[in-house]
């Protein structure tokens, strides 16, 4: 029933730091799989490579070496037109930087992928969703006029209405108060129960403890894989790393 939807093998990422031979390797040979309906969390200290890994595995940033497969497709081999459709319809992203269009109202940001795919827009449903996630601003306000927390909710709402099969989220609750964070987590959990695969970067141990599987990263290396993690195991795994 639960099929494999993500498979990355020996993924490395080098970035240029200026000059000819100044290539810095920031991810070292990471292999990982994830299934439909699975809630996977990626935890690790700041600078350990979490965002870089998420970008590589989601098709946004080509690894220097290694392979990436999402839903049977190598996203780096798609032609640009197909790649745009793939990103819009099959995978969803919640970025640390929100990636919203500041000059558009919140509502338009949420329905943008639906409009581009010529899908039906159920206004009532979207207003209800915004209510559910405690969005307290006017959906007609421009994103540029919203607070960080409200912007994050717009980015989350956009993914929640998109019906994609895989969701990548980078610290999705980072800018939120704990009540809103719990609500968002609950909605992501509901999606996994419907078969969506969610891959979430977080530094919140309590939140990672509620996911199905957690991986810990340190200095660009995958260190531990914890099935049904609990907060104590995660805490131990992360503090062990510090020694
Ligand atoms: N384009 C880049 N050029 C140089 N260094 C980078 C670049 N992107 C990331 N890094 C470095 O790689 C490491 C991992 O970054 P990142 O994936 O953002 O970590 P995390 O999300 O865990 O905080 C950091 O030390 C960061 O400074
Ligand atoms: Mg990051």
Automatic annotation (TrEMBL):
<dbReference type="InterPro" id="IPR003593">
    <property type="entry name" value="AAA+_ATPase"/>
</dbReference>
<keyword id="KW-0067">ATP-binding</keyword>
<dbReference type="GO" id="GO:0005524">
    <property type="term" value="F:ATP binding"/>
</dbReference>
<keyword id="KW-0813">Transport</keyword>
<keyword id="KW-0378">Hydrolase</keyword>
<feature type="domain" description="ABC transporter">
    <location>
        <begin position="6"/>
        <end position="238"/>
    </location>
</feature>
<protein>
    <submittedName>
        <fullName>Lipoprotein-releasing system ATP-binding protein LolD</fullName>
        <ecNumber>3.6.3.-</ecNumber>
    </submittedName>
</protein>
<dbReference type="InterPro" id="IPR027417">
    <property type="entry name" value="P-loop_NTPase"/>
</dbReference>
<comment type="similarity">
    <text>Belongs to the ABC transporter superfamily.</text>
</comment>
<dbReference type="InterPro" id="IPR003439">
    <property type="entry name" value="ABC_transporter-like_ATP-bd"/>
</dbReference>
<keyword id="KW-0547">Nucleotide-binding</keyword>
<dbReference type="InterPro" id="IPR017911">
    <property type="entry name" value="MacB-like_ATP-bd"/>
</dbReference>
<keyword id="KW-0449">Lipoprotein</keyword>
<dbReference type="Pfam" id="PF00005">
    <property type="entry name" value="ABC_tran"/>
</dbReference>
<dbReference type="InterPro" id="IPR017871">
    <property type="entry name" value="ABC_transporter-like_CS"/>
</dbReference>
<dbReference type="GO" id="GO:0016887">
    <property type="term" value="F:ATP hydrolysis activity"/>
</dbReference>
